Give the backbone structure.
Amino acid sequence: MTVSSKALERGMVALARSRLTVAASLSFAMIAIYFGFMGLFAFGKPVLGAMLAPGLSLCIVLGPLVIISSFLLCLLYVYWANTIFDRNVKSTLEQA
Amino acid sequence: MQSQSSNISIAFFFAFMALTLAITYWAAKRTKTTETFFAAGGEITAWQNGWALAGDFLSAAALLGIAGIVTSNGFDGMVYSIGWLVGWPIILFLIVEPLRNVGKFTFADVVAYRLSQKPVRSAAAIGTLAVISFYLIAQMVATGALIKLLFGIPYSWSVIIVGTAMLIYVLFGGMLATTWVQVVKAALLMAGGAFLCILVLAQFQMNPVRLFAAAAERYGAKVLQPGSRVVSGQWDAISLGLGLMFGTAAMPHILMRVYTVKDVKAARLSILYATGLIGAFHLMVFVIGFGAMVIVGPQAVLKAGGGGNMAAPLLAQAVGGNAFFGFICAVAFATMLAVVAGLTLSGVATLCHDLWTNRHKGGEGDRV
């Protein structure tokens, strides 16, 4: 009983740590993307204002890309959490 | 012309009121427990909750405000759209799981879990109520001003109408009614935005780049480039970014919705859907703003009053006639009404659940 409950605790701590790692890396990616963009907006206006074609500047490409990338990061996390992470939680609970 | 279009918008508006009040009546009959009142009994599906989150989050500022900023300043308006959206992944990655794991109705449940209940609850409640009051006051003032502009109803009357409607939704229908009001409003807003966007792009061979090129041809390439009229200083932009990203991740009426679905899987999915809907809407608003710049013109928008807020309605009138103008005005009104209802509900949850039940009564008697 104590052995299996110890194993369960170790398993759950490892799982919680894995979730935190994924969540922290994805958050970091989002912060890097967004503040990369805002950094350019604040300190690199000529770069963002570069015209790629008539009617298309770099910021008009990058702005929507920030929006799309935030959706994709969410998609990645939800896929990971709802399939892999939840399956691991279930199997850890069943093993104990 | 003005009176005819405002008749149409008033008709649309009353249809929306009738529908939402019917929903409230239906929800009130089903709301019998605290769980149902604050969290709709956890019975909302992920899709419904995703739409409701989008409804809670997209205020009139997202449609009227951003479109107006884009119309008069070009690209810079998008800085706000982006900032509002990037908070959502942060909510999903860092906030949803602890909220679902230990919370019941509010985020104070989480912070009070391992700490001394009473002082933490009080501090959390003060923070929440401060956020809600300021947000609510801003929304009510904007609503009054805009309704005066859109429908010609006097300022104080429009505030009274909105205030009464929001109290009816929240007090009688609780979370169930508020959720459905948000879903209806979000559907109207997305449909209105998408239709407006399509009508604009139809004049530019469905190619947004042609629209931007037309704007640059008329008002100079600077409308497609980052300027310094909307956000002035360099560090101001970084500070604004911090506020937009992490402020979004702490809005009480958004966090409360994590509890309306049955499990954490559905909570994660609903945030994903909301992020997609809100992102798509912000992209449409960008097109609408440029559309108003080219088709209506920034001068005409400023002349209509409201500090540029009339850009989207005037564009609707230009490309879709009076009926569409009325529809967009009514959607804007519905939007404000739904947002204040969501805010009020989270205020009620804080007062009842955090302050009364847990602070004053020591956790006993969580009853409606």
Notes: The first helix of chain B runs from residue 2 to 30. Chain B has one domain: 2-28+41-360. The mean pLDDT of chain B is 86.
